[in-house]
Amino acid sequence: MGLPREPRTRAPAAALRGDEPARALPAADAARLSLPMRALVPGLLPGLLPGLLPGLLLALLLALPGPAAAAPGRAALCAAQGDSERGVPASLVGRLARGFNLTGWIEGDAPTPPDPVLLRRLLARGLTHVRLPFDGEHLMPALGTGTGQAERLGRLDAALRQLLDAGFTVSLDMHPGDRFGALHRAEPERALALLDAAWAVLARRYARLAPDRLLFEVLNEPPNAEAWTGQLPRAVAALRVHAPERILVVSPGGPQRVEAMAALTPLDDPRLVYAFHFYDPMAFTHQGNDWGAADDPLRFLGGLPFPAASQDPAVRAVAARLAREGRADSAAELARQIRQPWTAEAIDRQFAPVGDWIARHRRPVIANEFGALDTAPLADRARWLAAVRAAAERRCIGWTHWDYADAFGFVTRRDGAERPVAALLDALIPPKAAGRAP
């Protein structure tokens, strides 16, 4: 997601243009069919069959595909992600299990620091990881956004110090904005050079700061997904010059969808954590968004529940309203996205390939963005958050909620006070699990 530019009473963190609505979930794989045994041994001589057939049959039965293998269990996936000797320590993987994105602190003309008392309460509740977005364009004078660099770096120093002193593990997220995005799409090599230079500044500045609890996230939602496939190894290599041992967070390009994560080839660097983002179905999580294009179909959605199916009364009521208002594009987008029912089971199926990826590659993975706009009904937001959290934890995938107190937030700011929304916090960390490892 992009960073909010100006604080307001309900300021959304604008989605990058690369964010795409959920595609219809694929149909389940057809059952595997085994060939008849006689088709597998057509050339055997009749005279040899009596002596050879028992052993041959056993060998063939062992070689044939049987029922689909059971998905790896949670304990096995947890064990697959920690490598204390040379990779990401298991203790760090544990601290990345639950967290939140803390926007609005570093950026903007009127940044809003979080309430330190509430931060300590959230840490005690079990939210041990903070992802701290930083607009890297302030370190890129070539983009004309290098003004105020010293001030923002000072804010960043103070924020990191406060979070680390409180006991959090922190991901410093390189989260550049529109100018970098446009450059990366148009001139990806020039953009990569600016990214490398910005990280050189930050890596040198924080070279000795909390090496076991401060991670560097190379680039949030790389705008040019095609170019990023080849650039990611080079970006990591450039950062390794200044941060040879630091744990880095890396991702596929574009909106970091779950499918891209499951298809990513891991790098030959054991000290990496892999990240993806999850906002499906977008018609639910982004209903009523008020940024971006004036004719964005999602802008005119509202009142959609979770779970939901196309024939549910609430969904039909929204479709009828859109028809009355002449919002054909919004009606078509809603119909497309809800072709498959929105359920916790559907979300779980989308996470399954990432669990398989972890089992296959034995690398740590986090879902370091997921959330639903506060334009969605509160109880439905809570149910969606609980479904995503459960799908992640079932596979030992750490998670980081987007965001803190902006439009996707689980904290409200009123009358100078910050308060967590109980229904959302309970969905993220059920009271019976508070303070315990997931």
Automatic annotation (TrEMBL):
Keywords: Carbohydrate metabolism, Cellulose degradation, Glycosidase, Hydrolase, Membrane, Polysaccharide degradation, Transmembrane, Transmembrane helix
Membrane-spanning residues: 39-64
Gene Ontology biological process terms in this record: cellulose catabolic process
GO cellular component, one term: cell surface
GO MF term (any one): beta-glucosidase activity
UniProt cross-references to SUPFAM superfamilies, sorted A to Z: (Trans)glycosidases
Segments forming domain Glycoside hydrolase family: 118-404
Entries under InterPro entries matching the protein: GH (IPR017853), Glyco_hydro_5 (IPR001547), Glycosyl_hydrolase_5 (IPR050386)
Family of the protein in this entry: Belongs to the glycosyl hydrolase 5 (cellulase A) family.
Protein name: Endoglucanase
Lineage of the species this protein comes from: Bacteria, Pseudomonadati, Pseudomonadota, Alphaproteobacteria, Hyphomicrobiales
